[in-house]
Amino acid sequence: MTRSGRLAGAGAVVRRRLLVAVPVLAATSIGMFALGAASPVDPAKQYAGAAAFTASEENLAQIRANWGVDDPLPVQYLRWIGNLVQGDLGWSTSRHEPVASVLSARAGWTLLLIGVALALALVGSLLLGSLAAYRRGGLFDRALRTAAYAVQSMPVFWLGLAAIAVFALALGWFPAGGLTDVTATSTSWADVAHHLILPVGVLAVSQAPWFVLFVRDAVAESMRDDHVLAARARGLPGRTVLFGHALRTALLPFLTLVGTHLPELVGGAVLVETVFSLPGLGAVTVAAALGSDFPLLAAITLVTTAVVLAANLTTDLAYAAADPRVRLDG
After folding, report:
1. Residue 182 within any structural domain of the chain
2. Beta strand spans in 86-141 (E)
3. In a domain, 153, yes or no
4. 246 exposure class (CB count in 10 Å sphere: 0-12, 13-18, 19+)
5. Looking at residue 205, what is its pLDDT?
6. Looking at the domain assignment, is residue 330 inside a domain?
7. Any idea where the ABC transmembrane type-1 domain is (predicted)?
8. Environment class of 181 (CB within 10 Å of its CB; exposed 0-12, middle 13-18, buried 19+)
9. SS3 call for 296
10. Residue ranges of the chain whose pLDDT lies below 50
11. Domain range for 232
């Protein structure tokens, strides 16, 4: 297929994904709005906070009227969607600041944690899974599979607490939480990197078993393909056969696995941030859930959904780029 044809096919993929993304985002927004509307929490009292105990009923009624809480639900939903389209994400009742400010201040740390942990998990999984497949049935293969199944059964928050107990409290190698030392007067990248070693490692290890086992099985299967057997028959070095032929074939379905695994990665990041007291979206998500902060919860859910949809689109395009035989236009 020509380059112009590939570009046209990529445009068709984007259009099809948008046709799916719009109803998914609409359904997500409706679900979040319905949950907020069904909540027994009075938005006026929640906004007033401690002052609600001394505020008069007239003042609370005025707050409800200003917010349109007593309007019909379809009117409230359309007004909320209109504000979202204009960039007004609402007011966070748990943080007492605009939702957009909360997201802009904390989303970067969450993306950093997820990006580094994902890269570490992918590189480690490709290397370890390929080596296990090359020596299938050997001691390294059996030990790796045993470790993967064991880690796979451990909740990510338990891994985080165990890492803190061993590496922070017992050995004192790394900080137990936060991004900087308590006595620090400024933020340096070296200090941040030192504080992120444990949370990044925990998140990467918690997600790696799925990738390791998949790569191991996929590479082991591709080792029996004709082109791999031909490469071995030509006397090519084992490293060339493994990484240059077998692993390349196994990478295609691996890309799909990465795309479908992103929601669990995001959920794991929320728990890791909470355990290690990181200033990302995880802590504020938990606080918003406990405090019934509907505007913040809805915004985080919609943003996360949009990121996952965009990642799935990127996965489709990467799959097609890796294998020119894949048709993008149908």
Report:
1. yes
2. 91-92, 97-98
3. yes
4. buried
5. 92
6. no
7. 107-315
8. exposed
9. helix
10. 1, 330
11. 103-322
